[in-house]
Amino acid sequence: MLALGIVLFGLRFCGQGMFSHIAMTAMGRWFEARRGQAVSITNLGHPAGEIVVPLLVVLLIGAVGWQATWLVVAAVLLLVVAPLLAILLSEGRDPVLHAARVERPGLQGRQWRRRDAAGHWLLPALLPVLLTPGFIATVIFFHQAHVAQVKGWTLTQMAPGYTAFGVTTILAAFGAGWAADRFGALRLLPLLVLPMGIGVTLIGPAEGVAGWYVALAVVGITQGMAGSLWGVLFPVLYGTAHLGAIRSLATTIMVISTAIGPGITGLLIDAGVDFPTQCLFLGAWCALMVVLCSIIAARIRPELPHR
């Protein structure tokens, strides 16, 4: 059990957690004028992996079994991915005439450290907003079998909804990246959880499975926006000098949301509150987050440096 725990920690920390954190921090520090587009392109790694890797893994398991599949994956990481990263990163990443660049400041013209951000009112105010997308998306997928049972649908009938979710996630990521560059990330903040609120609310009264497709497609808009928005907004709010440390704190919060969601909603299901009914309350929560984001954006706008 100890070995399994170490392995799972390594996969989570060094894989999904650390890789995405490094990528988003690098894009935030490197790009400025087109930071939103850079972040949105980088975010394609997750949906691309979700589309391609499961099919390859299923084929591998069918050919060599699940244990040998793990060995193949490990070999690819060691013999292909690691050398490729070493080659790509062998040269300095600073552009010509950019070595002496000045780190861009954030709120109040400051370079914020993690302890400063944690002690300021803004990060605690953003906490419920950071938690919401991961929490809701996770519980929707986690309780899909329960939703099928309550609605009288089959999992096969519900499957196209995940394709709709993936497509809108990708489109929204590109759209949000462009909009963040064009209008500013702060203006997008009040809109972030609005699509998710609409989508999750639609699950409650949906009778036909087409309602499930529409709901997941709309929820996917927020998922796509979130990846691009946070990648652009944190450098604007806190500067770029200590961006990695601050992003690590925010990433931890978002990971926690995905962990606690199924437990909380599962307890409510056991208490007799089915998940479609819970979706109505989750939609109301998103409406509150829209109001909160509007207040936050209005309050911090005067503190942003002019660029």
Explain how this protein is built.
This protein is an all-alpha fold and 307 residues long. The chain is 79% helix and 0% strand. The chain has helices at residues 2-30, 35-42, 45-64, 66-88, 114-119, 122-142, 144-151, 155-158, 160-183, 185-188, 194-203, 209-238, 243-270, 275-300. α1 crosses α12 (209-238). The longest helix has 30 residues, at 209-238. It starts with a helix and ends in a 7-residue tail after the last helix. Mean pLDDT is 83; it is low at 95-100.
List the helices and strands and how they pair.
Blueprint: H1 2-30, H2 35-42, H3 45-64, H4 66-88, H5 114-119, H6 122-142, H7 144-151, H8 155-158, H9 160-183, H10 185-188, H11 194-203, H12 209-238, H13 243-270, H14 275-300
GO molecular function: transmembrane transporter activity
Organism: Paracoccus liaowanqingii
Keywords: Membrane, Transmembrane, Transmembrane helix
